[in-house]
Amino acid sequence: MARNLHFLFLILLNTSLFITIHSHDNNSALTACLHSSGVKNFTVSSTLAYSRLLNFSIRNLRFAGAGVPKPTALILPCSVEDLRNSILCLRAASLAIRVRSGGHSYEGLSYTANNGVPFAIVDLMTLNRVRVDSGSLFAWAESGASLGEIYYAVAASNRTLAFPAGSCATVGSGGHIAGGGFGLLSRKYGVAADNVVDAILVDSAGRVLNRDSMGEDVFWAIRGGGGGSWGVVYSWQLRLVPVPERVTVCTRTRSGSTRSVAELVHRWQYVAPNLPEEFYLSVSVAGSGDGNVSASFTGFFLASRKAAVSSLSRRFPELVLAESSCREVSWIESVVQFAGLDSVSELTSHESSSPEFFKAKSDYVRIPIDMAGMITTLDYLSRKQEAYLILDPYGGAMARVKSDQIPFPHRAGNLYGIQYIVYWTVEEDTARDKHVAWLREFYEYMSRHVTKNPRAAFVNYLDLDLGTVEWGRGGEGPTDAVSKARVYGERYFLGNYGRLVKAKNAIDKENVFNNPQSIPPLNK
Ligand SMILES: Cc1cc2nc3c(=O)[nH]c(=O)nc-3n(C[C@H](O)[C@H](O)[C@H](O)COP(=O)(O)OP(=O)(O)OC[C@H]3O[C@@H](n4cnc5c(N)ncnc54)[C@H](O)[C@@H]3O)c2cc1C
Ligand SMILES: *[C@@H]1O[C@H](CO)[C@@H](O)[C@H](O)[C@H]1NC(C)=O
Ligand SMILES: *[C@@H]1O[C@H](CO)[C@@H](O)[C@H](O)[C@H]1NC(C)=O
Ligand SMILES: *[C@@H]1O[C@H](CO)[C@@H](O)[C@H](O)[C@H]1NC(C)=O
Ligand SMILES: *[C@@H]1O[C@H](CO)[C@@H](O)[C@H](O)[C@H]1NC(C)=O
Ligand SMILES: *[C@@H]1O[C@H](CO)[C@@H](O)[C@H](O)[C@H]1NC(C)=O
């Protein structure tokens, strides 16, 4: 009996794949399909709630304006069944699918589509439960959960457990972990994706797969191979990591002439990547527009304040770090500080402060930039007011993990990553063009100081300048898509690109899940 039911279920599953909606009005056909499969929470473009919901998770205003293509519908699945039914209905309606978790994609890929392809957004914001099994060192997080919600739940279960991932609380775990996920604990415990032990993936056929049933190539690909290529990750099983009761956080800002700041940053390159892995010291450098620069050092140490300050003073006396620049706090209090929030309870809010217009690029450095090069670099920056660099130290656990362990490949030999950001607050075409042109020129200058052949980049700092592939509405692309995509694929994933194509072929041969920088299947 049970076996027959199972058989019947399989037939239903299969036939549902071949439902096509025959209607000139695909909106109402989509609505009918969603209703009949029990999906209740969605809104179509004619409704009032639509614009508010669409805007809610747009973190880069470059992709909010009237000139940006808008989705036909926004669907908010409330369960994994809703999620698979949403995908099946969108396929039946011949709509391209965009999956949005936190909406922090630097290029807006979770809520836009190119070439006039009609599309809908599956927004995971209400799939945000995090379950930490007490007494176990693991958690299950639905992929619409923000990093702040994960941190909140983990700390609530045990003050000496943590999860290593990025510092902005509203970043979604769906896109973040899919791209690796670097943060303050990464020198100790690797990127977020290094700490994923299982996942539930809904594929383009609506199958609900776990690690065993998706297979090791696909499970490998979803941990760092970038979001939007494989299917929809419904949830992640995370390995939690131990932290001491008290950690130390320090901030120290040094402003002045480019030469004086360049000396400090030049020295930082030799210190930060070689600190004990319990020590994280990053630096962010901002231009002033008037020829000076300002460097903000952020320290996060799995050690007491006394031990941290005395060790840092010995290894980096030039920084002149006083105990008064540091505080001893619990791990979750450090998270609140680095997220720029005031209290632990704010960690669970998806509301972002003030989104702005921005464009970013990234690089990796393997050989320290010499003093003359550092001065020229900061001179460049000093002439621009609306720009900054973030230098993230690698080394420690980042260097211990092999480059092909997961798709995120930037491991041993990388001293630090660079992120370049320009931002503006009022949209004018001339302003945008001016800022973006400045960034591209600066990036061009930096080529002499960073990795080459290929010039590596971090997929979480997505940059469409690295190349794109245009897909049609059925996911069809140029015959040389695999070699076109290699241009950005090898910059983000180095030698792992080929295995990603193989994994794509195994899970989404029809290329249902695509975007201008997705991984193509073979012969697509
Ligand atoms: C303010 C800010 C701070 C940041 N800080 C860090 C940091 O400290 N460290 C770091 O590594 N990165 C950082 N990032 C980059 C961030 O990790 C990436 O932009 C990430 O892709 C955002 O994930 P999201 O879910 O919020 O974005 P979304 O825009 O929702 O998604 C990004 C991509 O993933 C896909 N996707 C989303 N959810 C799923 C899912 N469940 N299954 C499959 N695909 C999915 C989307 O379709 C899209 O292609 C930061 C970004 C911002 C804007
Ligand atoms: C959404 O954002 C756009 C662009 O910034 C704006 O024009 C529109 O009014 C916003 N919609 C709502 C409901 O706030
Ligand atoms: C339905 O969507 C709204 C946002 O429009 C959200 O606040 C609500 O929690 C969702 N309901 C469920 C059951 O997920
Ligand atoms: C509606 O969907 C059908 C297939 O289901 C497709 O052929 C048609 O082009 C779509 N119409 C519009 C206006 O998008
Ligand atoms: C809390 O986490 C620590 C690891 O930091 C672990 O040793 C301890 O057993 C956990 N306590 C409980 C009650 O689970
Ligand atoms: C630039 O820095 C120098 C050295 O700290 C300082 O004397 C000068 O006033 C600064 N110039 C500006 C415009 O802030």
Descriptive report:
By secondary structure, the chain is of the alpha+beta class. Among the domains are: 5-123, 2-Layer Sandwich (Uridine Diphospho-n-acetylenolpyruvylglucosamine Reductase, domain 2), CATH 3.30.43; 247-330 and 352-448, Vanillyl-alcohol Oxidase, Chain A, domain 3 (3-Layer(aba) Sandwich). The chain has 17 helices and 18 strands. It has helices at 2-17, 26-36, 48-56, 80-92, 147-157, 173-178, 186-189, 211-214, 216-221, 258-271, 305-315, 331-338, 371-382, 397-400, 429-446, 481-493, 497-507; strands at residues 42-44, 73-75, 96-100, 119-123, 130-132, 138-142, 161-162, 196-202, 208-209, 232-239, 241-242, 247-257, 279-287, 292-301, 326-329, 357-365, 387-393, 416-424. The protein has a seven-stranded antiparallel β-sheet with strand order 15-12-14-13-17-18-16. A five-stranded antiparallel β-sheet has the order 5-6-10-8-9. It is globular and about 65 Å long. The two termini are 43 Å apart.
Q: What ligands are attached or bound here?
A: flavin-adenine dinucleotide, 2-acetamido-2-deoxy-beta-D-glucopyranose
Continuous helix count: 17
Widest sheet: strand ordering: 15-12-14-13-17-18-16
CATH class of the domain at 247-330 and 352-448: Alpha Beta
Question: Structural class of the helix and strand makeup?
Answer: alpha+beta
Largest sheet: 7 strands, antiparallel
Please name the CATH topology of the domain at 247-330 and 352-448.
Vanillyl-alcohol Oxidase, Chain A, domain 3
Helix content: 25-40%
Q: Please, what is the average pLDDT? A: 93
